[in-house]
# Entry
Amino acid sequence: QKEVEQNSGPLSVPEGAIASLNCTYSDRGSQSFFWYRQYSGKSPELIMSIYSNGDKEDGRFTAQLNKASQYVSLLIRDSQPSDSATYLCAVNFLSNQFYFGTGTSLTVIP
Amino acid sequence: ETGVTQSPTHLIKTRGQQVTLRCSSQSGHNTVSWYQQALGQGPQFIFQYYREEENGRGNFPPRFSGLQFPNYSSELNVNALELDDSALYLCASSRDGGRQETQYFGPGTRLLVL
# Structure
């Protein structure tokens, strides 16, 4: 059974703080990992992808991957109210078959 | 905007009816995946089409079926609708069938079954 687990939250952080979102996955053979953001009533939009162990930075976002621990995280620096959304972790277990977690709801308080 | 389009945006059906949802993939993409997202849940993989062939299927019954056309657009058909089929249906396209290909989502079709 392929599983992707996230803390459902809600996670609340003050504006300007760092938000930390976590995800664990069950299949050690997984190779591709993605973070999507989903605003209420909208479809998921890609934030970033990560394939290798370590950190990957893109603007205010940093994805971290640890394959040995089967763990991937997303850090959002200088959080803004516009970052308030549900963040979905997706893992590519086989070919292009993505498995998603249930998402973590983030609220950034002005 | 991802370039992936879906139609219709909203749909209301009654139990037992059939529905067809449509998706146009982003230019240059030959792979389309369909997902069902119930309220408060993450998207659940239904199936994927790669170059007009089904390329994997999730844990959905046979009344969920699909098709991909030569221009790589796709349809999702659901027969004998049940109340639990009420959800947001998402289509995602990707450039190829490789394991590192990013999927880009369309705006979704919200289906309500009464």
